[in-house]
Amino acid sequence: MKLANFILFLATLVTCQCFSERENNFTTEFLYFTQSETAGHAAVSSYGIWNILSLVKFLTAGNTKIQLQRALFLPKSCLELIYGLKNLSDVILGSNTGNTTVFSRNYMVIDQNVRFNYMDFEEKAKFIGMNIISLDLNERDTAVIVANRIMFDEGQELSLDLPELFKIDEIHPNGITLANINRLQYVWRNKFTSVKVENFYDENNRQIGKVNMMFQIVNAACAQITPLKSQVLELPYGTDGKYAMLLIKPWPKTKVNDVFQKMTTFTYGQILNILNMQPPTVVYVKLPKFKINTNYALNVPLNKMGVFDLFEKKFSEFYGVPRNSLFVPAIVQHVSMEVNEVGLHRDMVQPGKRTVAFYAYRPFLYFVIEKTTDTIVLSGVYSKPTVY
Fold first, then answer.
1. Which of 273, 280, 155 has the alpha carbon at shortest distance from 225?
2. CATH architecture of the domain formed by 1-186+292-337
3. Please, what is the average pLDDT of the chain?
């Protein structure tokens, strides 16, 4: 029995890793187009959007389905997709520890008279954690208030103060409005030992503001990666090794957008392989303290990734319903995370073969990763300094 359970665990892990590669391929492009719409400062959960749109793919047909499949790097097999989504969600969301909590919830708001013809869609939605809110969308003012209230009340259960995510023009009687809500709560493995106000610069070393700069010394994987023209650091959370933050700091005179361009050919997997080959290293770390709460309507970034028909009533195609009768007027996302000095241990540093410095004085990229599957859960760009 133990052997059977172990084999099942390995099979699940392999499936999750295959699906995490699909989601990670989506991540870099999605973050790039989102931050280009937000003047370079952004935090998103590509995992959350990838998850919710993967489920919506079951409902679509024709060119709408093809566009989603290409943009999300999805398999053609429906069975492979549904169980891959479920297994990956169970690993990421179903095993939160006392040190790290990842909360991601999906909502679909539809008119109470809409019936999906795709077989067992409601069961599939529940299977992978989609919450369906059925309302009278002809009464849009009331529907917006009720939908926002439902999400706010459920967020309160996790001490999450949600804004009003939906606006009236994002609700339509023939629409399927989508929302994805994310929150990361964590504790570093090593606490930052000091915080003080320091200058923050752009890629040309011009001062653009000030930040509360945190400092710690830690054993961590750190490398200079020439193809990216960046220094990369993996900073661990907690004690179980399940989650970590990957930080990518471009070299001087290298813009964040330049790194994005290079990541189209130099993949996330290659970055992790290089980090895994690094010798034991002592890293002197300086990182801005910050808190970010984002609320994005993501139609435009997804348009730039090739998803068009889903958002246009005259082009959208859904399985088993007349053409032009359903569409997605909006997909919105909320991300809440805080980067602070709180950690479990202080100065528990073992001697290393080398000592390096990672000082985040300039704009950088960050990725929160689940280590057993190497899945990117949250990602962002820090480029607008504030003293938090």
1. 273
2. 2-Layer Sandwich (3.30)
3. 86
